[in-house]
Design goal:
The complex is a heterodimer of chains A (103) and B (533). Chain A is mainly β. Helices cover 11% and strands 30% of the residues of chain A. Classes of the chains: A mainly beta (103), B alpha/beta (533). Chain A: Its main location: cytoplasm.
Chain lengths: 103, 533
């Protein structure tokens, strides 16, 4: 059984989502190694457990993001990458943008 | 609506197939696709940019409302949609654009921190961020604070209408004339320069009070403040009290929108702008449509959510971003580096059912996640809405308009068997049982007016009215449309309304009263039947 190396991910929060993370917009995180490659679903759980400061229901709904939050994986729509099933790779850039505040 | 049900079944099946990793852009079929918009259209970066810019131009070109050389005010809140609007206008006016846009823009930002309970440091920081964005655009800009609502004159509530003209011919003539003036200048460069000269490229004096010419501000208590902000701490407190007096968040949001619109209108009028561009996206307008139906504004949906809003007469409000979904705007901003500033609003982090607007937004957004054509369906429906009766009075003496939202009054009364009639009848019945405290003061007011009206006719009027008559006489409610009535009823005290609203209310009530008294002397050819209160 091969253990996957820990991977470093670059996270960004925008459009107001940063309010739930103490106003910090960019985070460089290192995900611990595990046997299966990390996927976005597990990343969300990790974020909920480790980064989210308040009101988890405003970011995560069930196993996926709350409707209205866009997810970009390396500047591409996550719908094109498989959404929750996308397997994370080292140095990936994941952006969460809340569209709930119009402007 | 049947279509929606059938469509949604297809959508849920379609979504599963779309979840596959699709590779190529559907337009150029070469570059890898970056995002999916609408139901299943995948675009690459360049095609998306083309599509986005083209939609903006097409929106303006199709509606032919913005004349070349016209002064247009952009209402920028700092959020993604209005920042995107600003960016599009910037790009469209820049030299490298093919077929440049031809109007003269200015920027206004309404700073609402006082209503949301923000501290002065937070507000200063946000304003500073916005100023740096506005300065790079090169357009003249002005920052108006919500507190300045207490210095507005009551004329902002009046709509000014000119005679209707043939719009299409005017537009073609205007474009032709503009193109000619460009060609007849010796070099093409001169044309660009004349346009540039008209737009003053220097920053407007943002610290000076916008409304200093109508100085109602109390001069004594604001020494330390004057240097930095054009309002006094008392005005901030007055704003806070006004919003604290409303029990529901729904009413607060509506009141904030109304005050914001008045400030924008006033800015446009005194700076000489004839159009205002708002950055409402498709998603936001869909939410507004449903929320407005819940708020009792069903009769005015076409104006509240349509492309152009002509109810203020001399100023037309247009919404060029109304075909962009929130997702498209967010993507564009991220991919092409459009700067925006996030400002927390009244309903930031509020629970889902905190207000009607918030609940509607959450409902639609959730539905959109599973059925991606929700928003566009609502949008298409809204396009088909046309007002049944004329929404703009041909002359401002004929039909009466709501004090706060300037919509035509009396629409609800045109049908014999309307829900509104039923509500007003039950209201009357329940009120006639209460002790008539309100009635007593209104009769003294009328007597007072009767004495004075022989000496003064329109202006000044009776000296006691503005101090004593803050009570809820039936005449005051008749000045408001149904939804504005609900908003104002939610307040604990009418005194907290800004002065200009109360002044205008008094003015209109006096007019109605005098009209009633001279009714028999008016020429019978005048058509006053509908407006008799």
């Amino acid at each position: 059984m091969k253990m996957a190396a820990p991977i470093s991910i670059h996270l960004e929060f925008g459009g107001g989502a940063e309010l739930l993370f103490d106003g910090v917009k960019t985070h460089h995180v290192t995900l611990p190694s595990q046997s299966e490659p990390w996927d976005v679903k597990q990343l969300l759980e990790w974020i909920k457990a480790n980064l989210l400061k308040e009101r988890p229901e405003l970011f995560i709904q069930g196993t996926t993001v709350r409707p209205g939050i866009l997810v970009l994986i390396n500047d591409a729509d996550w719908e094109l990458m498989g959404e929750l099933d996308y397997k994370l790779q080292d140095q990936d850039n994941i952006v969460f943008i809340s569209t709930l505040h119009g402007g | 609506m049947c279509d929606l049900d059938e469509g949604s079944n297809e959508d849920s099946m379609g979504r599963d197939s779309v979840k596959r990793i699709s590779s190529k852009c559907m337009k150029c079929k070469e570059s890898p696709a970056l995002l999916i918009i609408r139901v299943g259209d995948a675009f690459c970066r360049n095609c998306f940019k083309e599509y986005f810019v083209h939609k903006f131009r097409a929106m303006l070109g199709k509606n032919r409302l913005v004349f070349p050389g016209e002064k247009v005010l952009l209402a920028v809140s700092g959020g993604p949609s209005s920042s995107s609007l600003l960016f599009q206008v910037q790009e469209g006016l820049s030299h490298k654009a093919s077929k440049k846009l031809r109007f003269v823009p200015g920027i206004v930002h309404i700073e609402e921190g006082a209503a949301c309970g923000k501290t002065l440091e937070e507000r200063t920081k946000i304003v500073a961020d916005l100023k740096s964005i506005f300065s790079t655009s090169g357009f003249p800009f002005v920052i108006v604070y919500l507190e300045e609502v207490f210095s507005l004159p009551s004329s902002v509530l009046q709509s000014i209408f000119s005679l209707p003209t043939e719009k299409d011919d005017l537009y073609k003539d205007a474009v032709a004339g503009f193109m000619q003036s460009c060609h007849t200048s010796v070099k093409k460069n001169l044309c660009h320069e004349t346009v540039a000269q008209e737009t003053t490229l220097t920053e407007d004096h943002t610290h000076a009070s916008l409304l200093s010419t109508h100085a109602h501000a109390n001069e004594t208590s604001i020494s330390a403040f004057r240097g930095k902000f054009p309002f006094s701490p008392e005005q901030t407190e007055a704003v806070e009290k006004l919003f604290a007096s409303m029990k529901t968040l729904t009413a607060k949001e509506e009141m904030l929108q109304t005050l914001r619109k008045h400030l924008i209108l006033y800015t446009a009028r005194i700076k000489g702008y004839s159009k205002v561009m708002m950055g409402d996206s498709c998603t936001r307008l869909a939410v507004k449509l449903l929320a407005n139906i819940c708020l009792g504004r069903g009769a005015f949906l076409a104006m509240d959510t349509g492309f152009s809003d002509p109810r203020h007469g001399d100023i037309t409000i247009i919404r060029p971003m109304r075909e962009y979904s929130a997702k498209e705007i967010a993507f564009y901003n991220k991919l092409f580096g459009v700067p925006s500033v996030f400002t927390a609003g009244l309903n930031t982090k509020a629970p889902e059912k905190a207000s009607i607007q918030h609940l509607t937004e959450s409902f639609i957004v959730k539905l959109q996640a599973d059925f991606p054509s929700t928003v566009s369906t609502i949008y298409r429906t809204s396009e088909k809405l046309n007002p049944r009766y004329s929404q703009t009075p041909a002359d401002d003496k004929g039909t009466e308009t709501c004090l706060l939202c300037s919509c035509v009054l009396g629409i609800e009364l045109r049908d014999e068997a309307s829900a509104f009639r039923a509500i007003s009848i039950s209201e009357e019945l329940s009120q006639s049982k209460k002790p008539e405290g309100g009635q007593v003061s209104s009769s003294t007011m009328e007597e007072c007016c009767a004495e004075n009206k022989m000496e003064t006719l329109e202006s000044s009027g009776c000296s006691c009215q503005s101090r004593e008559r803050r009570n809820t006489t039936p005449d005051f409610w008749s000045l408001l449309c149904y939804s504005c009535k609900l908003v104002v009823k939610d307040m604990t005290s009418l005194d907290l309304l800004p002065e200009y609203i109360l002044e205008e209310a008094n003015r209109r009530q006096r007019r109605t009263q005098i009209k009633r008294e001279i009714q028999e002397y008016l020429l019978t050819s005048e058509d006053d039947a509908d407006t008799a209160p």
